[in-house]
Amino acid sequence: MPAEGWVSLRAALWLLGLCAVLAPVQCSPDRPSWRYISTEVVIPRKELLRFGGQRHVIHMRRKRLFWPGYLMMTQDDQGVLQTDHPFVPEDCYYFGYLEEIPFSTVTINTCYGGLQGYMKLDDLAYEISPLKHSRKFEHTLSQMVADASTMGPMPRLGYEEERDPLLSPANITAAPRMSSKLYMFHEALMKGLCQSTNAFYRTANNVSETVQYMVDVGNIIDAVYRGLETRFYISVMHIYNVRDPVSTASLRPRSAYFQFYSRTLFPAFHPHTAVVFSTAEPPDGVYVPGLYSFCRSGGLVLVFWAGPTPWARSS
Ligand SMILES: *[C@@H]1O[C@H](CO)[C@@H](O)[C@H](O)[C@H]1NC(C)=O
Ligand SMILES: *[C@@H]1O[C@H](CO)[C@@H](O)[C@H](O)[C@H]1NC(C)=O
């Protein structure tokens, strides 16, 4: 149970998603870490959820996260990519809001029994997860905040920052370069190619778990982009479970991997976006979120770094 302590990487990606994906230039170099500050046990009943002493009505719609005919590929003994069929739940992703709470968002999956996901309302952010072995459908609902000790003044998480990109049509003229490009070139639908480097795969050493992680992050990316009236779909997943096709030590423009992506993967699959899951340290001393993005003609590439404890800043 996430009682106190650093939030999971996924939670942090979700919390920082907008900052990192849409406005990297605007993000403070001294990015905050996030902590769970309180946890309560809740029992969702249909669309009702009581927490913080109040009853909330959740409105959710199922969403599609996979492009029709999406491809899942792992490697054979020789490292050659081949179609694989690990178990991937497909019809259990939801997006919604809390009734009577303007600008609230709910991003949840029900793939593994119970509700797993995130809620944001007013200035508050929550993670919800099923309580293991509960026979009463109990869940933990943990509130998350930016950790004040690792940052300067608390950034305001409220309306002005959140509402614009997340829930209203983006103000394209005011939006940062990245999002206006996205908006213009990729229109409303984005097909994403997700890749796990060999090192990232080895953190779990299990294809199903790696896929599950990548899909969960895909779900978060979609939630983030919905604010720009853009949908994100997973169309191809590559898991380098035997070895990397080329070095993934660097993923920067002009690196071996970047060239491999633009010369081999991009022409073969024509994704709008590529997402690389990597353990390699991001460049330029950006230690904390380990998430950066850059644009090129072949599409936007997002890199998620999942080091051992990427969110806990060692002092
Ligand atoms: C968009 O942002 C610009 C610059 O901040 C502002 O002048 C303009 O009024 C905004 N437009 C809308 C529709 O909010
Ligand atoms: C991989 O993970 C899944 C789900 O956690 C588990 O059921 C499976 O047994 C694991 N496979 C191996 C080879 O460890």
From TrEMBL:
Keywords: Signal. GO terms for biological process: male gonad development. It comes from the Eukaryota. SUPFAM superfamilies: Metalloproteases ('zincins'), catalytic domain. GO terms for cellular component: external side of plasma membrane; sperm head plasma membrane. Residues 1-27 form the signal peptide. PANTHER family: A DISINTEGRIN AND METALLOPEPTIDASE DOMAIN 6-RELATED, ADAM A DISINTEGRIN AND METALLOPROTEASE DOMAIN. This is Peptidase M12B propeptide domain-containing protein. The lineage of its organism: Eukaryota, Metazoa, Chordata, Craniata, Vertebrata.
